[in-house]
Structures are given as C-alpha cells and as structure tokens.
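Predicting holo structure, adenosine-5'-diphosphate bound.
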Amino acid sequence: MKEDPKIRLSNVSKEFISRTGHTVALKKINLTIPDGEFFCIVGPSGCGKTTLLRILAGLEEASSGVIDIKSTDPTRPLNSMVFQEQSIFPWMNVRDNVAYGLRVRSIPKKQRYEIADHYISMIGLTKFADAYPHQLSGGMKQRVSVARAFANDPEILLMDEPFGALDEQNRIILQQELLRIWELTKKTTVFITHSIDEALCLGDRIMIMTANPGKIKAIINVDLPRPRDISTIRISSRYNELYQEIWLSLREEVMKRQEAAATL
Ligand SMILES: Nc1ncnc2c1ncn2[C@@H]1O[C@H](COP(=O)(O)OP(=O)(O)O)[C@@H](O)[C@H]1O
Ligand SMILES: [Mg+2]
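Done. Tokens:
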C-alpha cells in the first residue's frame, strides 16, 4: 500500500435542520485514508455512515470542515458509488449498464465495450452480457453494479452496504469477487457494512463509529494476510480476536442507541 493520502477529512461535521428538529449526524471527523486502502466503516444504525459517504461523493455538503480527495487524473471520475438497492437501468442490457459511465465520458463504443466485457467476465456474467435486468437475480444485478463501478475507473470507490440485501450465499460469492477485483486493482475503497465479518474479510482498517452524534470511536488495523481467502480467514485465531474486539466496542454503541430510542 502506498502511504500517500487519497482522502483527508479535517473536522468534518454535519447537522441536519428540519421542522422536527436538529440532528448532529457527524461531529468533527478527522480521518486520512491512504491511496489503495480498503477502508471499512461499521456503526449502529443512524450514526451517520451514509451521510459520511454522501459527503465523500459530493452528494451532500458538510456543515463545517474540509474534505480533500486527491485527484491524479482529471479525465477520470472522482468517485463511483454502489448502493444497497440495485441502481442499474432496467432498459439497458448488462453490457450497456456496465459501460454507462464510459459512454457519458464519450469513450468510443469499441473501447467501452472492451472495458465493460473485461469487468463482466471478472464478475462471472459473460453469458449474460446481452441480458436485461429483469432476466437476472438480485445477486446478479448487484454484480452488475459492482462491475459498473470498477469499469468507471473512479479515483475512489464508495460502497454503502452493497451486499446488505442479498442472501448469505450470494453475499459470500460477491465478497469473494470484490476481494479478487480489489486485490488486482487496489482501488481506494470506502465500504460501509453492518457485518463485522464482512469488514474483517475485506478491509485493511475498520472504523467504528459512535451512536449520535456520529464520531470516530476507534480505528482497527486488520492485520490479516493478503491475498485473503474468506473461508480460511474465518478460522484463524487472529480473526476471532479482532472480531471480539470490534464486537465489544460496537455492542456498547448499539446499546446506547437503543437506550436513546427507548427514552424518546
Ligand atoms: N436528509 C436528512 N434530513 C434530516 N436528517 C437526516 C437526513 N439524512 C440523515 N439524517 C439523520 O442523520 C443521522 C444519520 O443518518 P445516516 O447517515 O443515514 O445513518 P446510517 O447510515 O449510519 O444509518 C440520522 O439521525 C438521520 O435521521
Ligand atoms: Mg446508512
């Protein structure tokens, strides 16, 4: 991993003001993510994970603080986002969905199809390149979203619980595919998950957030070897130690969140 910071957040806070009240979603987030890191975020529901990702994506403005994402190539998009819910176009086939961002950037058809087919093959959907989303299962559609994000070749990849809606078997297959593509590309990735296991299988570091307001509680270094094999990593003693450490920290926040909700 190169030590160059790719993402730097200094004192980033976000408040939402609405008719029903005033929510401090994020409070003074200070964070540096080096180029090529797989950075995971876990935290109780409502702690500001999605808000942080939307700020990184430029979809939401911070109330205060500085966000710095280092761009190395102005012709590439700064970020691509993969959401929990499928966000592919139903009227386009798999190849055109994956090539969509490249078309927007006016990359010639032959070239964009070559790039699209490369990632379609990586996610194991070559036979379905001409198929339409309604012909695919939920897991396959999510694979198309992942392939599209990589085909865009953004400076950073942002993923918000991308496999959260999938059944366990599909989730494992997608985790393995993502791990394989990421290990080949080493693209800086910020990945939100509610699963400690998923964060440990994929991440270089895991940030644990506190319940309201969302702050950084701890950042854990995942010193598990790479390249990783998900099935063998889970049976290592280090995996279990890290799992316990993260769970104890997270559990406290989840309980706080429940208590806060109960007294409302
Ligand atoms: N557009 C919005 N307007 C008002 N409040 C919001 C908005 N978006 C998020 N929030 C609030 O900010 C907090 C953090 O939300 P969110 O980032 O979605 O949390 P998470 O993704 O960790 O579950 C929550 O209390 C949520 O209700
Ligand atoms: Mg969220």
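The two ends are 45 Å apart (CA to CA).
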